[in-house]
Amino acid sequence: MNNRAPHQTVVVVRLLSIQGGYFAYLRALLPELQRGGHDVLLVVITTKNLRPAIQGLLPSIQVRFVDEPSFHNAYLQPCLFRLLQSAHTRYILVNDLYESLFFFSYASLYRKTALYVVVHSTLRDMPGSRKFTVAIIYTLHRLLQSLVAMYISVSSYCAENLISAGIQHARIVVVPNGLPPVQVERVLRSGRNNLSVGYVGRFSHEKGPDIFLKTAALCLDLPVTFTLFGTGPLGEQIREQVRDMSNCQIEPTLNDAGEIYSRLDVLIIPSRSEGQPYAVLEAFQNNVLVIGSTAGGLPELLQGRGIMIEPNTPERYRNALQHVLENGQDVSVMKEAALTYMQRDGGAMRMGKAYLNLLKKS
Asked: Alpha-carbon dihedral of residues 109, 112, 113, 117, nearest 10 degrees?
């Protein structure tokens, strides 16, 4: 009988919505860590109104909450130290380049604790980011990278960005995101009168909902309807524009990805900045064609499995939709390639195994 105590693994993440990619990442990864023998504690930086929903959607995970407004308060650091010490922490996985800086001092004092930084996007691509602040964050990582057991990047694009910032190649590993398997409807949804096109994500500048709306405005002569699922800082602005559009609507964001994608034929991801969005994997898994921009790590997923468009070009998205309407065979080939990718490389079990192997080495 194996009486070895499970490892106490602390996963730290900031969640400002339960619909975003971070939440899909947690729902995929944390059960795999548990199945691998890790006692997981999730530390969530969030707002108080999201606490019940987060706890309800992760019922098997022990969760500790940190209020979003107070996280950067200097008084919080001792609280985090006490939390990590009381948890007998062996591994810390921090899902942000900035938040990870708060754990460098802990890693320097407690060398038996291995710090991992999971990189989902690049700070340099974020509009509105203060260049001076971003430069400081990257400089601190370059100088203190010896305190990090490994940088786990979700895409080669993010990994290359780390290398250009001075992080040693040997300290970086690429582990693409994954999803738990689901039953997939493999038939084409050609019975609809109109092509149903969706946007699933945060209403923020870097995600490009404005480009989605401009594309819809160019498609009034096509049998296409457009639906946005999401929330975010541009929500009111987006709703105002949609009120004046005859071929576009906003739907309440749903927790069940399958229900969202059952309504869609095509997902458009018009992002200006991306790491490796979970919306692409969800669309692949649910047999929905993806038309996405060439920003960030998107081409790594879409090559041969979807249609790629230069960012900020709504007229090219319009042309792509016309191509989809006229070329059903091309669509079938891409969707089949996407399903094959999910079955071979896009599973949560594959992702979880990669994380477990990394943790085992430290």
From this structure: 90
